[in-house]
């Protein structure tokens, strides 16, 4: 049986390789910014994913070392390192999923928008290359400010004539990961059973966790819900302050990024009912991009799911976040078209 073959220690390495490629189609994943704080642990986690057959690690520097290191792990994927812009095309060619954690992180006192001036240009140039070398890949945008970098990517792809709204995702999984952890702690339920949708965007009050829809349900007070909401919204800042100038979330982000990329791969492979929250092109509100639950399929977004019933507190939060999210989206669109 399959189970017996995988647990056979003597042949596990070869057998697992063989098994994985028999049961899952070939899939190439490229990570742009792979030598960074997120990039390195994310490269590790994607190397552990049996759905990946080729793992391309790209950065402006440092990737030969990361790739050599990760490549020794005895899992299915072949690992290739690419350093410097002249190798970007090779890193991207044939990619099914491109994960982008390239760019500078926050220091204490900064907002995510303070990263715009540097990261907008990085994202724009990477997306220009994606349009050329792997126009059909699913894009998992991690670089901040996500509320603006996703609209930048959409404009770059539109200009190149390759835009497909079903293939562009802002990664907001870390907000969901945090909401689940904080909720489980407060509600005293098993964290492994918890589900909490998080909608809106990925910065401050634009992050709107829907604790009224959290499962398993718990009888939390209004004050407790408010405290959980604020902690989720400020989760990134909590890490930035604790790291005291050494960057922002990297390990929890790598975990979240690996979960989201895995969901994309499962969707591509035709696994049914794969649903994750993500910041995508949307008609759920009057804003052109919005994070909500998304069903993933063979072409990327299969269905953008609605918000469901909101509490009065969540309705207020939704109205309050719209002006900031709208202006961050517009800032990205304007940048892409002006530069
Ligand atoms: P980091 O500085 O540790 O790593 C960034 C990497 O990007 C570096 O290795 C750098 O060389 C590389 N890079 C820079 N320009 C590049 C280019 N043109 N092409 C390829 N690579 C390039 O930063 P980090 O902690 O890994 O964070 C990366 C980004 O992710 C930041 O913008 C951060 O704000 C964001 N982030 C997003 C989330 C989220 O939830 N979406 C969570 C955490 C961090
Ligand atoms: C996070 O949510 O941890 C990231 O967006 C990084 C940050 O700057 O907070």
Terminal residue distance: 57 Å
Number of helices: 12
Describe the main β-sheet briefly: 6 strands, parallel
Unreliable spans are 1-21
Give the beta-strand count: 11
Elements, N to C (H/E): HHEHEHEHEHEHEHEEHHHEEEH
- Approximately how much beta-strand content do the residues carry? 15-25%
Global Rg: 20 Å
Bound compounds: nicotinamide-adenine-dinucleotide, (2S)-2-hydroxybutanedioic acid
* Main sheet: strand order: 3-2-1-4-5-6
Structural class: alpha/beta
Q: What spatial form do the alpha-carbon principal axes imply?
A: globular
Residue-averaged pLDDT = 94
As a percent range, the share of helical residues equals: 40-55%
Characterize the quaternary organization of these chains.
single chain
Describe this structure in words.
This protein has 12 helices and 11 strands. It has 339 residues and is α/β, with parallel strands linked by helices. Strand 1, helix 3 and strand 2 form a beta-alpha-beta unit. Helix 6 packs parallel to helix 7 and helix 8 packs antiparallel against helix 9. The longest helix is centred in the last third of the chain and has 27 residues. The N terminus is likely disordered. The site of nicotinamide-adenine-dinucleotide (NAD) has 31 residues, from helix 6. The site of (2S)-2-hydroxybutanedioic acid has 11 residues, from helix 10.
């Amino acid at each position: 049986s399959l189970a017996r073959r995988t647990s056979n220690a003597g042949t596990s390495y070869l057998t697992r390789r063989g098994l994985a490629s028999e049961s899952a189609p070939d899939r190439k994943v490229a990570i742009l910014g792979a030598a960074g704080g997120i990039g390195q642990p994310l490269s590790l986690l994607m190397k552990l994913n049996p759905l990946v057959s080729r793992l391309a690690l790209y950065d402006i520097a440092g990737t030969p070392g990361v790739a050599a290191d990760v490549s020794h792990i005895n899992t299915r994927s072949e690992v290739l390192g690419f350093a410097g812009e002249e190798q970007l095309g090779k890193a991207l060619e044939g990619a099914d999923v491109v994960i982008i954690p390239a760019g500078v992180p926050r220091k204490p006192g900064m907002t995510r928008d303070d990263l715009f001036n540097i990261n907008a240009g990085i994202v724009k140039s990477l997306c220009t290359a994606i349009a050329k070398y792997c126009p059909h890949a699913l894009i998992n945008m991690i670089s901040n400010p996500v509320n603006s970098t996703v609209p930048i990517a959409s404009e770059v792809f539109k200009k190149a004539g390759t835009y497909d709204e079903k293939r562009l995702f802002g990664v907001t999984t870390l907000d969901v990961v945090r909401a689940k952890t904080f909720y489980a702690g407060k509600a005293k339920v098993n964290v492994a059973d918890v589900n909490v949708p998080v909608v809106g965007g990925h910065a401050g009050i634009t992050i709107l966790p829907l604790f009224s829809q959290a499962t398993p349900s718990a009888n939390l007070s209004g004050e407790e819900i408010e405290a959980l909401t604020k902690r989720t919204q400020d989760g990134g800042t909590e890490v930035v302050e604790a790291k005291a100038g050494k960057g922002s979330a990297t390990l929890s982000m790598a975990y979240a990024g690996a979960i989201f990329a895995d969901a994309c791969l499962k969707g591509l492979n035709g696994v049914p009912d794969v649903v994750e929250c993500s910041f995508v092109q949307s008609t759920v509100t009057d804003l052109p991009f919005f994070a909500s639950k998304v069903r993933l399929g063979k072409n990327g977004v299969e269905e953008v799911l609605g918000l469901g019933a909101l509490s009065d507190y969540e309705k207020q939060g939704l109205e309050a976040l719209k002006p900031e999210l709208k202006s961050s989206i517009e800032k990205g669109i304007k940048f892409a078209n002006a530069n």
